Amino acid sequence: MQSHNIEGGGGVSLHVEEAGNRDGRPILFIHGFSQCGRAWDRQTNSDLAEDHRLVAMDIRGHGRSDKPRDAYGDAQLWADDVRAVINALELDHPILSGWSYGPLVMLDYVRHYGEDAIGGMNFVGGVTKIGTAEALTFLTPEFVGLVPGFFSEDPAESERALRSLLKLCFETELGSDDFERMVEYNTSVPYHVRQGLFSRVVDNDDLLPKIRKPVLISQGKHDRVVKPVAAGQHKTDIPHAEIDMMNTGHACFWDDAAAFNDRLRRFTERVFSSTASAG
Fold first, then answer.
1. I want to staple 102 with a disulfide (CB 3.0 to 4.6 A). Which of 29, 30, 217, 252 is the partner?
2. Residue 176 belongs to what domain range?
């Protein structure tokens, strides 16, 4: 595993780790709310690394990236972060794979920089809008009920909410070591960052019908955070998208990592073989 610190939007330092085949087809993993790049350990430490260059970024405010105040509401900054990672590491048309909040960041990038520099996108239990009444209809009541705790300035209260969030994310039972490791990096995210992410009012659904690059939608049938119906809406708006309904929870890339990795590998191979044929 190789680590990088890359200057993102507004000068924020982004922590990025990469693994795998330096000459392989690149995949850029973008984690969700209050997580970090280590969420993708079952991808970066898998046989995907044999043929792919695997890059996992800590998004602004998370993990070992900078955690400034008042730097989360501007879509341009999020777009700049993704662009900075692609450019700094010279990623050749990466697949963007985003979990949960991750597709919001991916679409921020597409809105400001288009699709030319990417190979395709993988929406993983993802949302494309936030901060509106309509956006709330795609989130489960169990998740919405935890939101006040995420915003709490009381560390004990916010930790309780984050522990409950982790229990919602996984269909398979986590071992105590994995669970406590995840609690540690969830609680390392300051409350002002969590507030900043959920204070955004964003609706990227206008972009979905305009997407021309390949899209894979990975969705857990038993997701207790994002309602599975969200995947159907995304498929309706992106008719050429492939959809993979998995027998998992919200973290389908963890609950059934082998199946997720195999599907992502096959998707990536088709994307790059099609690009090569077109060239």
1. 30
2. 2-278
